[in-house]
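Hey,
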Amino acid sequence: MITEARVKSDSQTKTMTSKPTSIAEVGVSEQLLQNLVLKHLLDADVLTLIALSNRLCLAGNIVQTLLDEAKRANLVENKQTTSDGQMRYALSEAGRNLAKLAFEKSGYLGPVPVPLEQYWSVCRAQSSRQHKVTREVIKRAFEKITLPNQLLTLIGPALNSKRPVLIYGPPGTGKSYLCRHLNLVFGDDVLIPHAVSIDQAIIQIFDPQLHELHEQEAQDNSIMLTQGHDPRWHRCRRPLLVVGGELTQEMLNVHYDRDSKTYHAPIGLKANNGVLLIDDLGRQQITPKEIFNRWIVPMEESRDFLSLPSGEHFDVPFEQILLFSTNLDPAQLVDEAFLRRLGYKIPFTALERSHFKAIWQQNCDELALRCDDETFDWLLTELYQPNDKVLLPCHPRDLLSIVADQINFNELPNQVTKQLLHQAWSIYFVQSMN
């Protein structure tokens, strides 16, 4: 269902990210543009107007203007045309020297960045705050995932609150699994800039390992195209960024790589307009208190305050659903004052029999296995109860996967039997050596 808010948001972002038709509309300084032109030519040696336009993600008329200015300054020279008549451009000796100096200052080589002010506007316009989460929306998003009703009644309001959420409970209760699917709730795409400019500094935001392109972005070889979508923005699914024990203080701030001379965006910036999950809270190299201290203001004001090594300070949107997941006691992680700042604290516990059976059947279907009610009941009465094991959401997948392995190895029918379950149980649960 497409909501009125979503239609309005799409219309706003389309207007905000229309393809620039002049240097002024690009939104960054001519010095930055000229440096990127020179660096791309140094990197490729020789480029046609089309190839350079594709690299910069700018319309051909803008790039031609930049090339003409560079030629007047004796920085760029015409080379022999291609077989299809396209002019080829290369750097003069003076241009090569300037390009090398530009690389010394910044190693960034990619599309022209968008101005920070434009990023602010687009990020706010496509914020998940624009979408109301209802019970029906949650059910539709998780139609292939079995969830207890009490969780539904907590998760939906928590998302509507737009406040940070703490999810806690024993291992195997489905905390991480659920969090990793929360970006399905909104089900739409967002625009993520390849990079943003802070004066002459460029911070790359788009990360191909984290951001999933909605579809293959077609190459636009029409150099005179001055309408439509600005290719400096990538259309992606709402991002889902999961960080566990590897989280460090460095990842929370802009990082400057001295070797590549490039700036790396903090995780909060990369997760904007999506979901940021801090998994296994309490097992990071930095303490939960340090994490919360760093994000107290961003969590409350929806803006983060960053700085560059040069000392320049600036603020960026902090527009994501922030989730913390832990199997430790929350009261032992941080004090009550910090816990109050987390809008919702949602406990995950063992399953009731009916929900466990539903997940069991779902996993049987996915693995093409058959399991009758008698065998399922035997599993509970003869294995779970005598061993004082609680019913956890991870058990069906794990046990049935072992059963499937045994069936495939022994070339057996796809029928779950008591013997196969007993073997799987002995393999899955560690037996005492005493």
